[in-house]
């Protein structure tokens, strides 16, 4: 048996799978996010540990024999978070999360520093890890002076389970400390933010064992102490493992809290100026590129809260098929934006509000705005030479037939919908554990799910939506000028 852990921003999901990758059982735990000041987003790592032990207790209770046969564990984690430990391994302060924007000035300064983009292969975004430590040095010097190790959230779970400091390449690529092409820490990048190599965890591949369970934890969980804990990875790379997105030409679009358009790459070919992320994959010798928008289903959930009507109900009110772009435009920059703008200060807007606009018009505008933003991501990916002919759709928003057809038409590519099943980051983490504990090849284990349905672009509406997208693109600079 193998345990896959998906450490998300709002909760942890654990799945127990056999060596064929079939999920036997799952469990979930939740925890809060603290927003002490505008732009701040923090979490107590103790809450992650409590959720982990709660999920383990539930799985042991429901499937005692299967859990006792545990052989490997993999962790998928939300990326970029700064979990700072002292020389005793104790947490110094709450983890600063990926969606925290306090270090925007520090990020801009690092991004302008010599060789930073060349070595990291990426813009230094405010949510990345390195600028957070520069902010700490300026604003919390006592805490900064105590930092012995900086761990990403997934690496912190690895440390809790094994007592060893290790992290994988895919997660570490989002720190601005990794030479992403060489798959190693860069002394130049570390020095640029006042850090040292000894403050970093050991690097392993996501499918490589980094340690085994601590004997005392193994005893508490009722399993063998030789259970392997693999490197794991960042959430999107591990989700790619869960849906078999491994090779050049493979891709997926995720309509989750944030929106992601991801393409697997056989080689390292960055173009930082595009604001496309170019990261190591969670399996050896492979990379991926992705465009990221910060508010996808988050935009629809925001509308839902303000209208007092469920997001699923709002979606259903539009029906299942598109009929052309609306006159009302929505810019989904509720928390700033990454690709292609790299703008933590920009905020969202409705443009063209009419006295007759109701719930349906507002919902259509939100779905179109998110889809336009993902079309921006495709343009950014294409500017780097990446080509996608079709993608798999995952995430909660992919349950809306209207939204998927809209996205297929705007991207002008086919979108596959997987058969109903349990896949994604938690399954991807379990698959990494299978590879690390058994020596199985990733390509044998990380297969794509069966496709239930393929949605093709509406040829009669492609031109109309492309024209609407061009008008949407012009809206960013206009809104930026007055905010």
Automatic annotation (TrEMBL):
The active site is at residue 235. Keywords: ATP-binding, Carbohydrate metabolism, Kinase, Nucleotide-binding, Transferase, Xylose metabolism. GO terms for biological process: D-xylose metabolic process; xylulose catabolic process. Its EC number is 2.7.1.17. It is an enzyme of class 2 (transferase). It catalyses: D-xylulose + ATP = D-xylulose 5-phosphate + ADP + H(+). It comes from the Bacteria. Residues 252-434 form the Carbohydrate kinase FGGY C-terminal domain. Substrate binds at residues 79-80. One of its GO terms (molecular function) is D-xylulokinase activity. Catalyzes the phosphorylation of D-xylulose to D-xylulose 5-phosphate. The lineage of its organism: Bacteria, Pseudomonadati, Pseudomonadota, Alphaproteobacteria, Rhodobacterales. This is Xylulose kinase. The record marks 6 as: Important for activity. PANTHER family: SUGAR KINASE, XYLULOSE KINASE.
